[in-house]
Amino acid sequence: MSSVSNPRRDAGAPLLEIKNLQVGFQTQNGTVQAVRGASLSLRAGETLAIVGESGSGKSTTAHAIINLLPGSGRITGGEILFEGRDLAKLSQKEMEDVRGKLIGFVPQDPMSNLNPVWSIGFQVEEAIKANGIATGKREIKKHAIEVLKEAGLGDADKRLRQFPHQFSGGMRQRVLIGMGLSSRPKLLIADEPTSALDVTVQRTILDNLDKLTREIGTALLFITHDLGLAAERAEHLVVMYKGQVVESGPSREILQNPLHPYTQRLVAAAPSLASRRIQSSSHSLGDLDYSAPRSVEGLDLIAAAEHRAELQAEAPQREDSIVVENLTKVYKIRGAKGDFKAVDDVSFAIERGTTTALVGESGSGKSTVAKMLLRLEDATDGKILINGTDTAPLRGKELLALRRRMQPVFQDPYGSLDPLRNIGNTIGEPLVTHNIGDRTSRRERVLELLEQVSLPATLSTRYPNELSGGQRQRVAIARALALKPDIVILDEAVSALDVLVQAQILQLLSDLQGELGLTYLFITHDLAVVRVIADNVCVMQRGRIVEKASTDEVFDRPQMEYTKELLNAIPGAGIALGV
Amino acid sequence: MAGYILRRLLQAIPVFIGTTFLIYFMVFALPGDPIIALFGDKTPNPAVVAQLRAQYHLDQPFVVQYLIYMGGIFRGDFGISFSGQPVTEILARTFPVTLRLAVIALLIETIAGILVGMVAGLRKGKLFDGTTLAISLILISLPVFVIAFVAQFVFGVQLGWARTTVGEGAPTIDLILPAIVLASISFAQIVRLTRSSVIETSSLDFVRTAYSKGLGRGRIIPVHILRNSLIPVVTYLATDFGVLLVGATVTEGIFNVPGVGNTLYQAIIRGEGPTVVSFVTVMVLIYLLVNLAVDLLYGLLDPRIRYVK
Questions:
Q1: Domain residue spans in chain B?
Q2: Does B208 touch chain A (CB under 8 A)?
Q3: B-interface mutation test, from A113, A122, A140, most B Cβ less than 10 A away
Q4: How many folded domains does chain A comprise?
C-alpha cells in the first residue's frame, strides 16, 4: 500500500523513534549487550515489523519500549522517544500510565500469558479499569464484552466467566489482542503474536489484527522470525542481527533486493518464501533453473529441494516401506458418553527412500499415527505393515528388532535429550540397548554419527544445556541414526527451530536421505516446509486423511477446501518475488 | 462435587482398616511383655498376670485380638488403658489440648511465614532476603528441643513473659509460647517455600502481561503473584498440620503440655496396644480429613483443578 492511499498518515514527527538503543543484561561474567545501537522510527498508523532469529534482540527491543525487560535487563543507552517523550527516562509510576493506555502489548505465547486462576472476564475488566476506560461495574463489563467481540470472540458475553484453560490457543490470543487494544492505544506491540498457533488460525487472527489496528488508527510494531509473514503484514521492515539493525526499509524492496548478507540468508531460508517461489515458477521442480546468490553459504532451501527432486526422478520404482491400512484409534473419555476417535480409518503407503508428509492442525491425529507406527500406542483397528511385516503381533525380541529399523525424532530439542547424560552417551545409548558392538566400536560409531550430522567430535563429552536448539536437534537425529534404521519418523522435528536453523536441518535431512536411502514420515503443521522436503503429502483433518497426493499435485491442484485453506495460510501470498 | 467428597470418604475406609491393622501388628510385635513390665522390679503373681492377660485379651491369638478391638471401635468402645481409664476418656482429655496447640502454631507459621516469604521473594537478593534466608537456615538446623529450652529459659525464666510449664487445665494463653516453638521450624520452611514460589511466579509471562496492561505493583502482587504462589504452600501446610498433631511430643514434653504427643509416648513405652492404636486411628482419621480439605482448597485456588465424579 502506498503512502497516498493512507489518509491517516501525517508528515509530522514520528510516533515512536528509537535512537541508538543499548540494552544490557547483568550476568556473572559482566554485562551482556543484547541490543547494540538499534534505531528505528514509526509514524502514527503505520505498521513496522522487526525480523530476526532468536537472540537477535528483536523482542528485547520491544520490551525495552514499555520498560518490561526480563530479569537483570537494563537500558544502558540511547533514547526511546514516544510522542516526543523519552520513555527510557520515565519513572515506574509514569510508565504505568503509558502501558496499556498509550501502548498496548500482545505477547507471544497465548498459553502462558493469561493468569490461569482468574476468569477471562476478570482479566479483561481489570485492564479496562486500570486505564480508566470505563467506570462502574456494569459499564466495565459492557466494554469488556465489546472489546472481546471486536477481537473475534462472538460469544464473549457467555464466556466471560470461563477460565483460560477452557479456551483454545487461538481464542486466548484473541483475548490478549482484545486486551491490548481495549484502551485504543496509539501503538500496539505484537511480539510473535501467532507463532504458537496453527497456520489457519494464525491467518484469521492476523487479518483481524490488521483490520482492528486500521480502524482504530493504531500503529503496529510487529515482531516475527518469519520474513514472509513480516513482509505480508508490514509496510516497513527492520532486520535485526546480533543486537543491531542490519537493514531497514519498505518490505517489498527488502524482500526483492536484500542487500545485507544476513537478510539474503533469511530470504533464502524462509520456507514460506521458498515454497512460494517454487510454486510461482511454472516449471516443475526438476527443471527449475534457479541459482542462489553465492553469499548464502549453501543454505538454500530451493536448491536443496531441487537437488532432492532430481535424485527422486532418477530413482527406479521401489517397494513400499510403510503400509498403513484402515488405521483407527479410539480413546475412551472418562465421564463422557461417546468415545473420541483420534485416528479414523487412515490408509497410506510410503515407498522406500521417499518422504511422505502428514500435514494437519493440532488435534488432527497426525502424532497419534506416529505413535502407533512406533508401537508406542496400540491401534484400535487396522493394520501397520513395515517392510511387509504386520507389527501388531510383535513382542519382545521381534519388537526390539522392529524398533531398531524405525527411529523417531521429536519436536522439542530441549525435552527429548536427557540433561544428565553427555552427548556421546545419548547418541550411543541405542547401541547399548540393542547390544551392538563393544566400547571402542560404539565410540567410533558415535564420532561417525556426529560427523554425519555436521557436529564437531568434541561435543561428545558436552551436555545438552551447553548446546543450542539446532545442535540439540542434530544430536536427536544422530541418535535416531545410530542403529542404521531404514525409517525415520520426524514428528514436528523442525517446528521449534529458527528459520536459518530449520533450513540447515531440512538440508541435513535431505542429504542423509540421499546418502543412506532413508524413508521419512514427516509430520508437520507447516505446509511451507512440506514443499521443500516431501515427495507425497497426506492432509489430515479431524482424524481422517482428506487429501492424499504427490507434493506437486497438492500444491498445484488442491482438491479439498481444507487443503486450499492451509495453502492460503502460508504467508507471503501477495508478494511478488524476483525469482 | 458431592460425589467427589463421598468417593474420597469411601476411599478412606480401606486406608483406615489398613493402618489400624498395621499399627496393631507393630505394637503386638514389640519385644517384651507389657504385663510383666507393669510389675516393674517386683515378682509378678502368676494368677494376677493371667487375669490381666485375659482382661486385655492378650491370651488370644493376634488376629482375634485385633478383631475384638475393631469390634469395640464400631460400638464406640476404644478399650481400656492399663491404668484402668477408658481410652475414649483419655482421647477426649488430650486431643482438645493438642488441637488448640496445633491450630495456634499453624496460624502463627502461616501468617508470619507467608508474609515474610513473600517480602523476601519480591526483594530477591536484597538485604531483607539474605537475612531471612540465613535466619530460616538456622531455625531449620536447630533441633526443636534446643529452641524449646532456650525459649523456655529466656521468655519463661529470665523475662517472665510466659509460664514455663502448661499443665492440666491451663488457659489457652499459656499455649502461645510452646506454639511459637512448635511453629518455628515450619515457619522457616514456609518462608523458603513461599519465597521461591513467589520468585518463580513473578517471572511468569502472565505477570509481565499484567504489567503491560498498565496495572501497578499494588494490584499485581496480591492478585497475580500471591494467589498463584500459594498452591505449593497449601500442600505443605496440610502435611504440616498432621505433623503438628502427632509430632509435638518433644515440645509437649518440655512444656509439660498434657496433649496427645505426651500421652502417646507414654503408651508406646508401656506397650499399651489399645491406647496406641486408638490414638493413631484418630490421627489417621484427622490426616485423611485434612487432606480432603486441602484437595478441596486446591479447587478454590486453582480453577483448572476440577473433580471428576
A1: 2-74, 88-301
A2: yes
A3: A113
A4: 1
